Automatic annotation (TrEMBL):
Residues 3-159 form the NadR/Ttd14 AAA domain. It comes from the Bacteria. GO terms for molecular function: ATP binding; dTMP kinase activity. Keywords: ATP-binding, Kinase, Nucleotide-binding, Transferase. This is Thymidylate kinase. GO terms for biological process: dTDP biosynthetic process; dTTP biosynthetic process; dUDP biosynthetic process. GO terms for cellular component: cytoplasm. It comes from Paenarthrobacter aurescens (strain TC1).
Length: 193
């Protein structure tokens, strides 16, 4: 089974992905966590350190290249794995980032989404941008504003694919979010919160 988790920074998707895989392993099932990062955090830290801002098109070019590489490698790994595969982030994240930054959707990412194996379940972590911002600031590794996170959230919601996502309310405590995720996976909760 392939599960993809998406959501804005600070929505708790990475924490939930780890918990999901750890729970499956504790039950004796095979499980694999694959991360499809795009080097955003690293670029953000470098920008803050040296006092320069990467232009949106340049950032998108770098992020898209890194994310596409990770997604392709991880789909190849998932294909060879027998068990639960949880992907933390996917190409939808890049499409939402483009939308949030006023960039066009392009052709490559939608084409790849059509060609790659579809997830058995795509769960989107919908978090209040203010709460997500508090979480981001608490971990101290990112530079995001509430406005950036709000634009990112709105961009996710505007994706044509969004209507096919299972949506969980990720503004609560991690245990509550995890319980909601488990109910979505087992079919005990409707796909849209």
């Amino acid at each position: 089974m392939l599960i993809v988790l998406t959501g804005i920074d600070g929505s708790g998707k990475t924490t939930a992905a780890r918990a999901l895989v750890d729970s499956a392993l504790a039950e004796g099932r095979s499980a694999l966590l694959l991360s499809n990062h795009a080097a955003r955090r690293r670029m953000s830290l470098l920008s803050a350190r040296y006092g320069w801002k990467v232009p949106p098109r340049v950032a998108d070019f770098i992020e898209t290249g890194v994310r596409v590489f990770n997604v392709l490698v991880n789909h190849a790994r998932a294909r060879q794995f027998d068990g639960l595969v949880v992907m933390d982030r996917h190409l939808h994240c890049q499409l939402a980032l483009r939308q949030a930054n006023g960039l066009r959707r392009g052709r490559l990412l939608p084409w790849l989404l059509e060609k790659l194996p579809a997830a058995d379940l795509h769960v989107h972590f919908d978090a209040d941008p203010t709460i997500a911002h508090e979480r981001v600031m608490a971990r101290g590794t990112d530079q995001e504003t509430v406005a950036d996170l709000r634009a990112f959230r709105d961009a996710y919601r505007s994706l044509p694919e969004y209507e096919d996502f299972a949506v969980v309310d990720a503004s609560g405590e991690p245990g509550d979010v995890q319980a909601q995720l488990n109910r979505v996976i087992t079919g005990k909760e409707p796909l849209h919160a």
